[in-house]
Amino acid sequence: MENFTDFFKKVEEKWQRIWEEKGVYQPEVDESKPKFFMTVPYPYVSGLLHLGSAYTYTRGDFIARYKRLKGYNVLWPQGWHLTGSPIVSRSYRLKMGDKKIIEDLISDGIPESDFKKLENPEGWAIYFMNLNREAFKKFGYSIDWRRELYTTYLNPWYDKFVKWQYRKLKEKNLITKGSHPVILDSKLKIVIGDHDRPDEYAGISYQEGIIIKFPLENKLGNIEGIFLPCFTLRSETIYGVTNIWINPSGKYVLAKVNSEYWILPNTIILEELRAQKFNVEIIREVSAEELIGKNAINPITKDKIPILPAKFVDIEIGTGIVMSVPSDAPYDYIALLDLTKDQEYSKIAEDCLRKMKPLFRLEGYSEFPARDIVEKLEIKSQEDRDKLEKATKEIYNKEFYNGIAREIYGKYAGKKVFEFKEEFEKEIIEEKIAVRYYTLPIRFVSRYNNKVIVGIVEDQWFLKYSDIEWKKLAHECVDGMFIYPENLKKVFHEYIEWYKDWACTHQKELGSTLPWDEKWTLESLSDSTLYTAFYTIYNLIKKIDPEKIGDDLFDYVFLGKGNKEELIRKYGEIIEEMRREFLYWYPVDIRTSGKDLIGNHFIFYIFHHTAIFPKELWPKGIIINGWVLTDGKKMSKSLGNYVSMKDAYEKYSVDALRFLIAYSGNSGLDDANLELSKVENAERYLMEWYSFCINNYNKGRVSEKLPVDLWFEGVLYEKIKVIEMEYERLNMRNVINSIYDIDNSYKWYIKRCGEPHRDVINKYIIVKSIVLYPIAPHIVSEILERIGLDPLNPSWPYVEEVKDFENLDKREEYIRKIRDDISKILEIIRIEKPKKIKIIVARKEKYRNLKENYFIRNQEEELNILKDAATTISKEFYCDVDIDIEEKSSEEKSKKALPGKPAIIVI
User: Fold this and answer.
1) Out of 44, 391, 512, 680, which could bridge 373 as a Cys pair, Cβ 3.0 to 4.6 Å?
2) Residue 574 contacts by C-beta under 8 Å, 6 or more apart in sequence?
3) CB hemisphere CA count around 145 (13 angstroms)
4) CB-CB neighbours of 311 under 10 Å
5) CB 776 within 8 A of CB 8
6) Residue 591 in contact with residue 621, Cβ under 8 Å?
């Protein structure tokens, strides 16, 4: 392997140097060629990029190189995302001597002598941008580096562009100001977006629900009028509350909240309440024992309900106190069942189960849906978390859309939950039974290492994704796009509907400030929606002093507005050149990335394009891929399977890695499995192909082509069509499998003909090399150069369609079947080395009633096929092969011969 790796690395360095020196991937406007503009969302450079990024970007290179082969003028630019708090937080933690950050840097091979450079956000950003650029070049990505951009005020041209974009949105009344719930760092009180949290928590948003206040029946000490606040997403089920749950291990407090007394857990929840403008003053600690066994009052039904212990209650989520509705909530039902086995609480739990009330009529369920689904899924205890989650989601969704309120609901009886829920909540809030509240479904830490909370931020700026007309445009864009896999269109539409107003500004972060309110910085998802347009002119706009750039430049270049002559006088002819570049390259033909961006970046990308550009410039296509596992496991430093791109290119052949990346998965939501243990196999496969090409090109017979020669040419023609289709969808594993199919067909071809025809083997070498080129461009470039073809401008292979290929293919399949039948016979009669094999063709009259389209039309044809195949069969089984006809055979078995099914006798 070591020699192979050294050889590959020399080849890779050679071709990367040639590509850069000759500017091979620096396309210019060429109206004579069709253009293809493809992009991959720029990565966040808070550290070294890992093989997950390599997977996404290598797939981008596959399609860029494939489209060049197809004759397109391809532009693939690149940028780097510096916006947000992760870089700020990491540089800050390094400066503070954070051991975890220091350990991570050392494990990534960052010299301690460089740490000082990383102690400010700007230094950190530039440092890792440089390292990751080097990794991209080492992986052989065919990027136009003239257009390399990065975000934030550190790039004054990008800063100007983003400010123009937001002034346009404001002009269109798509930005508003107000108070809004956002996810905050509990200590620093800064907004935490997807990039500001560990990757596994990306996409988690706050939940909007209500707190229902259940009065405690008796005083606590000398204080009366105390409430047990229960956060719920299912306020409408209050009629079915049988008890209150608290965590027996939890530490609680009595607190004055605004003008009321509440029992609350002494946890992060107190900070979350304060962040939502509740005044919270702790009066004293309260033990769980003081509460368990006491009664609360249902504020609507006035029923007494006991307070009971439940370990499933998370004292950091919601209010840490939960109302129990066992009729309709599987968790509550199973928790009460568990409690019936507890000697101390069994009678109370049994009483609660007896007091269950039917709330909704739901088709397919009894009066108590929770009980039904617990029994159906065979849920035995609270430990069956996965089943309980599944049951909860199923009941919630079905009841929300199809549950019909029973008579207990008074004026709402007969209505479906979704029809009355909003009005019902408004009513109980007005009656001061409940208050609106926001929390998280799971508590996690920010990249600053502090727990996050939901807070209300005032004077915040929002993108009005709730705007109905804007949503219509976004839906129209999705309808007109190529999205693969196709079933994701529905998901895109659902996300467009789901989005409400989005807080687009944060504070204390790297970024571009909001042009009309500069105390706010645009957050990382909001400054990265339209930059694909900026790529088209970035190589040119850098020639203009950014201080002199005004909105009029962008208005003209991107929207065609303004006085052309005046603008040329102001900026020079370059502004016309920028306009030409933009109109040639735009819109984006394909944008490809991972499934984690479906619910955020891609939706914002669509929204912003529809707001600013005319329909003909809206995005045309998106291809989605899953995440990457390494050797079957999620990549993690703790598991020891975390590999950075830098580690990978230093250790392995890049072409072999690219081959593994291609084989690891197709497009779609399924995660890819990158098996690094198979790098050696990939290297050997590519090395063997290189040697084969060098040793066999222009070799072989030059006689007239045999049917089997034509058959293999037909295989190449058919497989090229399949591979072409799979490349269009980036189904790369299918591409590799089709290449393997070509290999297997070639092996059969050689078995059949002995010596290949020169024209056929040349076609095989060219076809396979070219379809491999997007995957392993370095070694294929070397092959093309060695065999005398153009390595810098290769074209998609052309093979003529073979006449009557279907019958030629059936002919070869027939011969393979004869071979397989012989193998089965040898296995049955247990003969390893036969002396002779007789194959007897059916008599002539048996062919009279064959179907017209049967590939064998008469005895003579079948006889000729078998005579042609006799040498192949003889070599396969190391014995003589006799071909005979039924009319001349004395073998009794010959009478069983049929057209296409000759009799086979082994001696």
Assistant:
1) 391
2) 540, 543, 544
3) 15
4) 13
5) no
6) yes
Question: Would you call 329 helix, strand, or coil by DSSP?
Answer: coil
Query: Tokens 């309120």 correspond to what residue?
Result: 405
In three-state form (DSSP H/G/I as H, E/B as E, the rest C), the secondary structure along 24-93 is CCCCCCCCCCCEEEEECCCCECCCCCEHHHHHHHHHHHHHHHHHHHCCCEEECCCEEECCECHHHHHHHH
Q: Omega before 77 cis (within 30°)?
A: no
Angle between helices 99-107 and 86-95 (to 10 degrees): 100
Q: With bands split at pLDDT 50, 70 and 90, how would you rate the model's confidence at 1?
A: very low
CB atoms within 10 A of CB 1: 14
The pLDDT > 90 percentage for the chain reads 83
Residues near 405 by Cβ (< 8 Å), separated by ≥ 6? 236, 359, 360, 412, 413, 414, 415, 416, 417, 420
Amino acid at 581: E
Which tokens sit at 402?
């199809």
Residues sharing a CB contact under 8 Å with residue 154, sequence separation 6 or more, in sequence order: 82, 122, 125, 126, 510
Query: Residue 323: which of 267, 399, 245, 414 has the closest Cα?
Result: 245
Q: Which helix (H) or strand (E) holds 462?
A: strand 452-463
> Would you say how long the chain is, in residues?
907
- Which residues, in sequence order, are CB contacts of 498 under 8 Å at separation 6+? none
Q: Mention every residue, 6+ apart, whose C-beta is less than 8 A from residue 35.
A: 72, 73, 74, 75, 584, 585, 589
Residues of the chain with CATH 3.90.740.10: 207-439
Token pair for 229: 């606040």
Phi and psi (nearest 5°) for 700?
115, 170
d(CA 62, CA 134): 19
Task: Tell me the pTM.
Answer: 0.83
How far is the C-alpha of 775 from the C-alpha of 737, rounded, in Å? Answer: 13
Tokens 């296995």 correspond to what residue? 827
Token pair for 403: 């549950």
| Type of residue at 81 | H
Amino acid code (one letter) for 588 = V
Q: Where do you find CATH 3.30.2320.20 in the chain? A: 807-906
CATH number assigned to the domain covering 807-906 = 3.30.2320.20
pLDDT of amino acid 507: 80
pLDDT at 165: 98
Alpha carbon distances (Å) from 893 to 348, 811, 839, 850: 84, 24, 10, 22
Cis omega before residue 485 (within 30°)?
Answer: yes
pLDDT on residue 459:
87
CATH 3.30.1120.10 fits 207-439, yes or no: no
